[in-house]
User: What shape does this take?
Amino acid sequence: LCVPIWNSNHQIIGVAQVLNRLDGKPFDDADQRLFEAFVIFCGLGINNTIMYDQVKKSWAKQSVALDVLSYHATCSKTEVDKFKAANIPLVCELGIDK
Assistant: This one.
């Protein structure tokens, strides 16, 4: 007895199979319905695992981006003091205000 495993987008992501009932009889409709219900939970678990991995990857990318931004956005107190003391011309003095 084979049943497809679906994801949340209604795409088949796998197949589950059971073989040989313990009593040796063929699988019936009740067996199929029970197995289909079980496979729904398998699909949910697989889908949750995939989404969790995507979240972990996104979190890692965000962490790297934040580290890069933090590195480039920092400066020493000396640099800040030097910038504050600098004589920076106004836009109108440079003639670029138009």
Q: What stands out?
A: The chain has a mean pLDDT of 91. The longest strand covers residues 12-17. The chain has one domain: 2-84. Residues 2-84 form one domain.
